[in-house]
Amino acid sequence: MGLYGHDDNRTRPFSRQRRAYLRGSISFGRINRDRVVIGGIQSNQLMGLSIDKARLYGMPHIGCRDTAKGLDATAFAAEHPRCACCGRTNGRHNRHHEPPRSNGTFRLETQNGTFELRPALIDLCGSGTTGCHGDRHSGRLRIRWEWDTAEAEHRWWSGYWLSQPEHEPNGQWLFKYGRYVFTRDSVSWEYRA
Ligand SMILES: [Zn+2]
Ligand SMILES: [Zn+2]
Question: Where are any strands of DSSP class E within 35-148?
């Protein structure tokens, strides 16, 4: 929170804007063109998403990997899955999409190119209704991505990193510059591989 002030200050205006955007009463691109919102992203790049949701696209997979292009082409990265939230290694596990799968992909347009970003895949124990995976889909568990510095966030949103082949989206290299923040029942903790 230190970099950007209190959480409320940066999330509340976006949800109001998003509602107006969905009603069609404002044109995000026209009215807010070139307005830098945070960390170098411009509001017309968000495509109506909240900053917290947009930030999750392209972030590192945890215990999972893509096997092909489609959103459902996924596999666990290791033989024995480990829940990214509670550390559980036995029982049932799922490969959760963050943001959730129904949100699809996110097209990020930058001065350095256009990138179709996929949600992060996160190993969570349980099922769609049980365990940590169930908690995530019921909203009890929340997952955010936080950049360590404004400079790192700017390198992401500007397309600077994404335009370089060694900086693949969803790669583990991103943990050098940021971390996930899990929150359940008002308790928050960080996750960094
Ligand atoms: Zn778990
Ligand atoms: Zn899920």
Answer: 36-38, 41-42, 64-66, 74-76, 93-98, 106-110, 113-117, 120-125, 141-147
